[in-house]
Amino acid sequence: MASRSQPTLIRVIDLETTGNSPPAHGVCEVGWQDVAQGPDGRWELYGDGGNILVNPGRQIPPITMAIHHIRNEDVEDARWWHDVARPVLDPWPRRVALAAHRASFEEQFCTPSLTHGADWICTWKCALRLWPDSPSFSNQVLRYWRNPEGMIHERGLPVHRAFPDAYVTAHHLRDQLNEASVAQLIQWSKEPGLLPRVRYGPDRGKEWREIEEESLVGFLTDRDPDIRYTAETEMARRRGGGHIGRMTPQDLLL
């Protein structure tokens, strides 16, 4: 059992990069904020978090610079990703998981060899399950729709920088951990996203249980894995073999 000096800890990670597809693109900043379980079993933000600029080993395109405002001259003397990554991704006390909003992006750069095979929690996928009424599920929409308790507005700015984004995500993660178990969040994160509403077409904006079966069948071959998975899950529910939609308290314990 972890002592108070060695709490159970999950580290939220956010990356700023030169683009979306390694190895063609590289990391130019990493930020983190820890969330820890206290002696009362409740999860809270832990420590101050931080950020490190990283030399991506290539030029930052202007279109990407315009998003995070990290310039080539800001990172030309910074350390390389392979020198920075391991101590950031595997902190002491040893963490039980890593987390990110839309974690599949971070996982491309934070490979198992750098994370010692850590499990990931995707706060986007978990938000789809726990807060289906949100008008959108981006990190920032959730921030202003939910208004998480204790968030210091200025620490979450500027948007699209690694520490502020990790800080915002950590508040979502804290509240998710206080609604569902670590194991449940990890399991949801391993599956495609379970979308609460139809994304496009004549049924756009409807809950999946509201659409006609003919329309539902059309989504079973969609190119988007989240849409396919959601359609398959709703079809299974209609056939008596699955669940979709808002989770009841009993569902959250499964």
UniProtKB/TrEMBL annotation:
Exonuclease domain: residues covered: 9-182
Q: Which domain of life is it from?
A: Bacteria
Which InterPro entries did the record assign? Ribonucl_H, RNaseH-like_sf, RNaseH_sf
Fetch the CDD domains from UniProt: DEDDh
Which protein, by its recorded name, is this? Exonuclease domain-containing protein
Organism (species): Sphingomonas longa
